[in-house]
Amino acid sequence: MSQSSPKLQLKNPLLFLLQKSQTLLQVLQIHAQLITTNLISDAFAASRLLDTIVSKIYNVNYAELVFAQIHQPNSFICNSMVKCYTKSSTPERTLRFYAEMRRKGLLGDNYTYPFVLKACGAMCGLLEGKLVQGEATKRGFGSDVFVVNGLISMYCRCGEPGDARVAFDGFSEKDLVSWNSMLAGYVGCEEMEKAQNLFDEMPERDVVSWSIMINGYGKKMGDVKRARAFFDGMPTKDVISRNSMIDGYAKVGEVEAAREIFDKMLQKNVISWSIMIDGYVRHGDSKEALNLFRQMLCQGIKPDRVSVVGAVSACSQLGALDQGRWIHLYMKRNRLLVDIIVQTALVDMYLKCGSLDEACRIFNGMPERNVVTWSVMIVGLGMNGYGKEALECFARMEKERIPMDDLIFLGVLMACSHANLVTEGLRIFNRMRDAYRLEPKLEHYGCLVDLLGRAGQLDEAQNIIQSMPMKPNAVLWGSLLLACRIHRNVDLAEILVERLAELKADDSGVYVLMSNIYADVGMWEGMIKIRKLVKERKMKKETGRSVIEVDGNVEEFISGERSHILREEIELIIWSLAKMSILAG
After folding, report:
1. How far apart are the C-alpha atoms of 166 and 169, rounded to whole Å?
2. Nearest one of 28, 124, 127, 123 to 85, comparing CA atoms
3. Fewer CB atoms near the end CB (10 Å): N or C, the chain?
4. Confidence band (pLDDT; 50, 70, 90) for 106?
């Protein structure tokens, strides 16, 4: 590969266009011209192309293809690939590439080591990080500020803030990034007292320093009052600090307080929108999450992975298939980055909306799948009544020797429960312990109790609860109570209500369910007694809600609400349907 003067090459119109490019299509067009003019054979031009792909487009596969065509890559080109792999969801590839660099005699520099250390931190590779530190020191980069800052972050990511502090204290040329790295490390390890002390010692602070403390108290510790005190005490606020405060409120469920700050922001970035969308989805207001997603698009903000996953998850919760399809199409048309997390969210959405063909098409086309992906597919098949297919999916995992964890077994047990596959569910539960040496958690026992309860094996379900190595919670007793209604077992239901009362989990829903059990078997005195009890305790029944999608719009109906714009038409239809059912007998 030929060498040329960078100064000369920068004047080349193609490289000038490359600097200005923003989309994958633009880069592909310039790449084609570089090949046509044979400029691609120039090391500097190739390095500029690769750096653009990594920094602006971030397409790992494309970067690998370009790198493979460079016969004698220099350190700058290799560093671009190191950076590329570090940003990926599989940081261990960074270490493999770095090892290959060393094998070929290409030595690292003060640009290489920080990224390799970052990759070590991301994969919690403490041993690997120490080896990289040793090599950096041998090569004379042990006191380089970028390397030391990378070292501090690596140790903290690996859960060793003490070692990070040794590196921090032993470095005499600390800059603000060093202080912020150590501060973020303490916050990440939830050592807020040490973080507070370090914050007080800082010779200077910037917006990042204040934002780290806001994140620590708000997002990490859930202490939004203290986080708000830091936020209010900031000398100047920017988008980052406001995002941190919004995130803190959203994480603890104070979505209205988060929205208040969000609405007052004169400048919002994609992270601002993503935090709010995710906050609404996490706390059950999926309709508002979708409204916000549409507003973001109308304002010309290109969504990121978090906002897209949030919008897709909102469609999952609402069963809004048409809107989910539209978002999927939007991603394709705008060439948004679709990684394993986004694809898994799409699979989940299509399954929950009942579109198995589309879910299977995405699942089978995925270049890689993780445990969450498999679990989503297995649970989704079970929820849609395809229990045997869910078990076949599990068998496929075993055949492909995919590592199992408790999440997968939870998914399989849920699928068996929905499909009423009692024998298979019991077999899977036993295999989890015997073949895979995984101890079932409370959630696994919950699935087993639900499975047996649905099948009417209430005594067996009780035996499972009594033989559990941990104390049953309200969810477990509630699951069995629901089974009592299905199979009209009044005696057991009365015992379960007492158990729930002992756990102080006897809310209105429990008594409404017990009242319905009495009504189902004609025990009217028991039903009246329960309803009187609910009235005396002034318990409020949770408001009934239903959501449907009509012509791509989500319509929500609330029990007792009389303010809907189409109230009269809705009541007329309900009256007509009621009349039809009476006439039908």
Report:
1. 5
2. 123
3. C
4. confident
Q: What are the tokens at 425?
A: 């569910």
pLDDT tens by residue, 197-218? 999 999 999 999 999 999 999 9
Tokens 């009362």, located at residue: 501
Residue 327 CB partners (closer than 8 Å, separation 6+) = 293, 308, 311, 312, 315
For 553, counting Cβ atoms within 10 Å of its Cβ (0-12 exposed, 13-18 middle, 19+ buried), the class is exposed
Q: How far apart are CA 556 and CA 33, in angstroms?
A: 53
Q: Scanning the structure block, which residue is given the tokens 């207001």? A: 285
Assign 3-state DSSP to the chain and report helix, strand, coil percentages, each to 5: 70, 0, 25
pLDDT tens per residue across span 433-472 = 899 999 999 999 999 999 999 999 999 999 999 899 999 8
Query: Reduced to 3 states, what is the DSSP secondary structure of residue 73?
Result: coil
Q: Taking the mean position of all CA atoms in its chain, how far away is CA 42?
A: 42
Average pLDDT, the chain: 88
Q: Bigger pLDDT: 163 or 547?
A: 163
Q: Which two tokens stand for residue 382?
A: 């079970």
Q: Give the residue from 458, 464, 475, 415 showing the smallest Cα distance to 440.
A: 464
Total residue count of the chain as it appears in this document: 585
Residue 7 has pLDDT above 50, yes or no: no
**Which pTM does this prediction carry?**
0.76
Residue 5's pLDDT is what? Answer: 47
Q: What is the 3-state secondary structure (H, E, C) of 263-288?
A: HHCCCCCHHHHHHHHHHHHHCCCHHH
Give the C-alpha separation, 253 to 281, whole Å: 11
CA distance 511 to 536: 13
Minimal CA–CA distance to 104: which of 82, 76, 78?
Answer: 78
d(CA 313, CA 325): 12
Predicted confidence at residue 162, as pLDDT, reads 95
Distances from the Cα of 110 to the Cα of 46, 145, 278, 415, 528, angstroms: 22, 9, 37, 51, 77
